[in-house]
Amino acid sequence: MCGIAGIMLSENLVPQREVLDTLQQALAHRGPDGAKRHVDVGFGLVHTRLAIIDLKTGDQPLFGPKGSVLVANGEIYNYIELKRGLPAETFATNSDCELPLITYAREGAGFAKPLRGMYAIALADRDAGALYLARDPFGIKPLYYAEFKDGILFASELQALLKTGLVARNISPKIATELLQLQFTTGEHTIFPAIHRVAPGETLTLRKGRIAERRRLAALPEAPPLALSEEEAVVLLESVLKDSVLVHQRSDVPYGMFLSGGIDSSALLACMARLNDRPVRAFTAGFPGTDAHDERALAKEVARAAGAEHIEIEVTKNDFWTTLPEIAGAMDDPAADYAILPTYLLAREAARHVKVVLCGEGGDELFAGYGRYRTALRSRWFGGRQMRHRGFLDDLGVLRDATGWRHGIEEAEKQIAANKGTRLQHAQALDCADWLPNDLLLKVDRCLMAHGLEGRTPFLDQRVAELAFRLPDALKVKGEMGKYILRKWLTRALPAADAFSRKRGFTVPVAEWIAIRARTLGSLIAQSEGIAQVCHRERVEALFHSFGQRGGKREGAACWQLLFYALWHRIHVEGRSPRADVMSVLEVQ
């Protein structure tokens, strides 16, 4: 895992060293093992390295036949198999990231199609006058770009683009409202109008500092459900899960996994335990002394049954008040998911033991684990409703403009509705379009890379997706229970996981902690420049005061959204240091 950045100019000039220096310094945390660059007429590439595979010869940039040059952030899991299929090719390194240079020589702009993995790639071909930006189909690895008068900048994190001074730091109130309502933002636009995401699965062709072509690989198969019996599905699932976990464990450094005790992480542990000779290191977070469900006891039992080394951390209200600004500082592309707190602290602890962790993201989306899928399947007569039909701040009178915040979701709904598939598949595809890359995977990337830790997601693998998404609906959802076939397999693979028991949803007690200081927080947040731009200050303050006195689940969730955004705006727009506690960052200066 690494950081990549660079520039392509519209004129045949050498990029300024100061710009490349800034990009490199901004991404240093993503690559603590070294940094290099390549500068040529018209473009420059920067790489900061977290060494995982080929520790000796894998430094980047990497150079290919006919003068191509590449920097990459990610892992190409099928690099061994691809190399075996290319016996006539000569490889200069043992790096997995050398493969795209070879596939480019053969396939041109379609070089990403054979790749199985997670990646953000910048590949330049001087002779062809082209620079390509490619991102994996699920959007596991981030990549941003910004057009300016002299060309295009790109980087693994948008904060690096802002620090060059070539991109405006002003925000979009429309996108800020979307963030407050959804807790994430949708599509290719970011909260900074000048900065865009390379879409999941997209390859951009740049020429003379401008976008000349776009092409895209789909994450989900476009094929009808498979005609499978339950037993056949279990056998196939065992095969693809073991295969995915096996290739996701390819590493020249120590690795472990995040274990919640839930279905997805328990399934990963079951596979890892079978595939490893040594005990797997499993990391779990808990919230002592709160009303939140503490998963550590179940996780400990599952870890014991799998013979894993179990490492626990406690997340406390002190962590909330002292560490939240630091975490908001890492979330330069904002996602107000309260799981950023335990994820960040788990990553900090895990980085002391390993350099790679496997995570369960994607299991709910591919195997239909969310309750909202079951709701979406019901007719309106029986309580069915549209997904994400309600925002966090709806009916609270806080927003200046409460209209239009579903525009991005509606666009995705239209595109998905035009595809063949069942209602359940459409609901799953909607989550894979935005919720997954712009919330869950964004959270994992920023929280782990802040500590130089690589996160891998075996469920978000091409072969797993080809099976899971095409399972018959009845093998995903049975009655009121999702992930049916995954539970069925896990019952056999790791009985201690108690796969068919009712699992309590994962929660972080942020509302409980906010309530302690709600009145003071309300006054400070109401004075935030970012909040004032999209909210009525007096109503924000009243909401916090009311929540502090009477509580309420909806009000607590709304207060969390507003707190996160106020902190984020202070740090990323107003320039406050995140190296302070919550109250200090929010205070008016």
Characteristics of this structure?
589 residues; six-stranded antiparallel beta sheet; single chain; 16% strand; 17 strands; Glutamine Phosphoribosylpyrophosphate, subunit 1, domain 1; Rossmann fold
The name of the CATH architecture of the largest domain is 3-Layer(aba) Sandwich
Question: What is the makeup of the main sheet?
Answer: 6 strands, antiparallel
* Tally of alpha and pi helices: 23
| CATH superfamily membership of the largest domain | HUPs
Share of β-strand residues: 15-25%
Mean pLDDT reading: 95
Subunit arrangement of the protein: single chain
Going by helix content, strand content and strand pairing, the class is: alpha+beta
Major sheet strand order: 2-3-1-9-8-10
- Helix percent band: 40-55%
Low-confidence stretches: none
Count of the separate structural domains: 3
**Strand runs, count:** 17
Shape: globular
Rounded to an integer in angstroms, the radius of gyration calculated over CA atoms is 23 Å
First-to-last CA distance? 38 Å
CATH topology of the largest domain: Rossmann fold
Topology:
Blueprint: E1 2-9, H1 17-26, E2 35-40, E3 43-49, E4 62-63, E5 68-76, H2 79-84, H3 99-107, E6 117-125, E7 130-135, E8 144-148, E9 151-155, H4 158-163, H5 173-182, E10 196-197, E11 202-207, E12 210-216, H6 230-248, E13 255-258, H7 263-275, E14 281-286, H8 296-305, E15 309-314, H9 317-330, H10 340-350, E16 356-358, H11 363-367, H12 371-377, H13 407-417, H14 423-449, E17 454-456, H15 462-468, H16 473-476, H17 484-493, H18 510-516, H19 518-526, H20 529-534, H21 537-550, H22 553-572, H23 582-586
Parallel strand pairs: 13-14, 13-16, 14-15, 16-17
Antiparallel strand pairs: 1-3, 1-9, 2-3, 4-5, 5-6, 6-7, 7-11, 8-9, 8-10, 11-12
Helix pairs in contact: 5-22, 6-7, 6-15, 6-17, 7-17, 9-22, 10-14, 12-14, 13-14, 18-22, 19-21, 21-22
